[in-house]
Write a structure and sequence with these properties.
- This protein is mainly alpha-helical and 154 residues long.
- The strands form 2 sheets. Strands 1-2 form a two-stranded antiparallel ribbon.
- Helix 1 crosses helix 4.
- The protein is globular, with a radius of gyration of 17 Å.
């Protein structure tokens, strides 16, 4: 992880996901109760695609390799990958395997959709805590400035 920058994200059940930008370990496989595992796998793979772990045009590991890494049945992994194919984020070449879409517009849209989901989750959580939209905007702006300053110092 030569130049990988580690960002820690707190998720509702207070577990932490380590996110290594640009490395092979984009996220740990961390499954939650109440959401089908194949959907969670698909979401994790989407994040790995948009953060560059699996760059456009790159070959994905095999179903068996991914299933072993995630600790799931290969059929579960297959279902998740089939959904990514249906969404045209990955495509299969008969004997060569699966590859990440090279459609930059589609990948940009995916990145924006994932970011919007996270912003909505954060906004809703902070509103439930009693913050106003203005307080949330100020808090997020302050945090972003701090992160930018720290990043520039490195």
């Amino acid at each position: 992880y030569k130049s990988a920058r580690v960002l820690k994200y707190k998720i509702p059940d207070r577990r932490t996901i380590d996110h290594f930008q640009g490395s092979e370990l984009a996220m740990k496989w961390d499954f939650k109760e109440g959401i089908p595992i194949w959907q969670q796998i698909g979401h994790t793979m989407q994040i790995r695609i948009v953060n560059g772990t699996y760059p456009p045009g790159s070959k994905l590991p095999t179903v068996r390799e991914l299933a072993l890494e995630a600790g799931v049945n290969p059929n579960t992994m297959q279902r998740a990958l089939s959904e990514l194919e249906r969404d045209e984020l990955v495509y299969a070449q008969r004997t060569a395997g699966r590859f990440v879409s090279e459609d930059e517009e589609r990948l940009t849209r995916l990145r924006e959709d994932l970011a919007r989901e996270k912003v909505e989750e954060l906004f809703e959580a902070l509103m439930r805590m009693g913050l106003t939209p203005e307080q949330i905007a100020e808090s997020v702006g302050r945090y972003a400035r701090k992160q930018t300053d720290e990043f520039q110092e490195e």
